[in-house]
Amino acid sequence: MIDVLMSAMVLLVVTAGTTFFVRRMPQIVRPLVWLAYGEYILCTIVQMVWTRLIVEGGDTLLYTERGGALAKYLDQSFWFTAPEVLRLLFQQPSGVDHYADIVGLGTNTGSMFAMSAFTIFFLGGSEYAAHALVAGGSFFGALLVFKALNDAQPDLNPRGVFLATVLFPSIAFWTCAFHKESFCLMGIGLALTAWRGVYRRKWLRVVLCTPLAILLLGLFRAPTIPPLALGLALYLIYDRFRKARGAEVVILGPLYLAVGFVLVAAGMILVSQLDPSLAVDKLGDTMGQKQAQWGKVEGGSTLESSEDVAPATPMEQLANVPIALLNALFRPQIFDIHNVGTAVSAVEMSIVTYFLIRSLLRTGVRGILSEIEKSPLLLMCAVITFVGCTFVGLVTLNLGSLARYRVPFLPFYGTGIVFLSERLKQTRAGPVAKSAVPAAGPRLAPAMPKVAPRWKKV
User: Fold this and answer.
1) Least packed by Cβ within 10 Å: which of 139, 160, 307, 403?
2) Predicted TM-score (pTM) above 0.70
3) Whole-number mean pLDDT of the chain?
4) Which one-letter DSSP state was computed for residue 156?
5) DSSP notation for 15-32
6) Please, are residues 346 and 402 in contact by the beta-carbon 8 Å criterion?
């Protein structure tokens, strides 16, 4: 009974939040918001059925089951247990480390158990309501991403951007449950909201969203911070340089570069503090360890066998960048299908691949670079996608996990594809518009204007 009541309450809150967002969306995408609302509800149901009845396992089920056990300790003695669970959330040694068979202590996995415990406790012990609440938060995070990117490039087709950032099937499916990517998407939405708040001079929005974004990204997906910081820094630099004129470039140019450098450096320092294994001097070793772990996994979705030796040197890692990027951007494809999950993902990635290759064939590499030169947003999306997906492709040697780990970068990947497709349509429409103008014919004398007849007075 508690599951029904709490789930209904969460659904009511999410519906009210969706209504709030709809009123602040462009008129053209308002029906799509409700379509996305239904998609996220459907994906939440599918996730719960899939993990509980079909595969009877998975990360999301593990988080909620063991988090639910911690929630019972919170229910018995909240003021004693809550500080310890809070330490677990912030990846510090705690008094609940050995309770409920918690694994991943001191990592983002431990943070997931703590977040699950608090969420389930405040929802009266309902795991289903906890899933629904996380799905609602992810949905709102995706809407924030759309609003920020649409604000940065208003002339881009809003429907296309909405499809790329909110309706994208992989984004909806993998964030409609207790996954790290769900909280990461919320963090990205808040980070982009703060970014546009700076441009719109909405300082209260910046002050509120920035720390929440850093908290969510730092706790649950710290590797997302460097690509995001790099993309935002390049947007700032390039946008300012394009708008600067004459002496302003000479005077303020170094300042723009310095601000961009500080932003990237701050992101790297923050990540190294949150997770020392992601520091620049340890990054190569960390990737080698991740690759070695995946290499020991045998299964239909594993890209490498256990006999393969994971590369360890920086040069060997660099040599694997092209294949890692190809895997992260384009796989699985039709030839990778071996179950229902890969089939759905393969259809999705095949469509994305088709649109990207079509743009490449019709405009060429030079045409794509020309479009990037014209748009700071496209530059930002390209940098975040390539840097983020390269790292994901290097450390992930399993197609199922690859499809989930790249989710934080899919909104930027999808927006870039939409951008190129829209520019391709405009390029093709140009000659048609010119041909519609009638050819010049022989010059005729201008027609005499019609004059009303003058009537005599009777």
Assistant:
1) 307
2) yes
3) 81
4) S
5) HHHHHHHHTTS-GGGHHH
6) no
- 1-14 core/surface letters (b: 16 or more CB in 10 A; e: else): eeeeebbebbbeeb
| Model confidence at 376: pLDDT above 80 | yes
Tell me if 45 sits within 8 A of 75, measured CB to CB: no
User: From the CB of residue 256, how many other CB atoms can be counted at a distance below 10 Å?
Assistant: 18
Beta bridge partners of 398: 302
Establish whether the linkage from the previous residue to 332 is cis, with ω within 30° of 0: yes
Residue position matching structure tokens 């963090």: 187
**What pLDDT band is residue 358 in, cutting at 50, 70 and 90?**
confident
Torsion angle in degrees (nearest 10) through CA of 145, 148, 154, 160: 0
What is the C-alpha separation between 170 and 404, in angstroms, rounded? 8
- Beta bridge partners of residue 302, listed in sequence order: 398
The set of residues, in sequence order, having a beta carbon less than 8 Å from that of 191 and lying 6+ positions away, is 209, 210, 213, 214, 217, 228
pLDDT at 114: 94
Confidence of residue 286 (pLDDT cuts 50, 70, 90): low
How far CA 352 is from CA of 17, 73, 321, 330, 413, in Å, comes to 31, 47, 21, 8, 9
Q: How far apart are CA 51 and CA 60, in angstroms?
A: 8
| Closest of 302, 324, 300 to residue 394, by C-alpha | 324
Angstrom distance (rounded) from CA 91 to CA 112 = 10
Using CB atoms within 10 Å of the CB of residue 289, give its burial: 0 to 12 exposed, 13 to 18 middle, 19+ buried. middle
pLDDT digit string (tens) for 43-79? 999 999 888 888 788 889 999 998 998 999 999 989 9
Positive or negative, the CA dihedral 157, 160, 166, 171 is: negative
- Cα separation, 40 vs 139, whole angstroms: 7
Question: What's the DSSP call for residue 301?
Answer: T
Upper half-sphere CA count for residue 184 (Cβ side, 13 Å): 23
Residues 6 or more apart whose CB falls under 8 angstroms from that of 280 comprise 268, 272
Token readout for 329 is 């951007």
CB 223 within 8 A of CB 271: yes
**What letter would DSSP give residue 51?**
I
Token code pair at residue 298:
């045998």
Token code pair at residue 173: 């499916």
CB 398 within 8 A of CB 301: yes
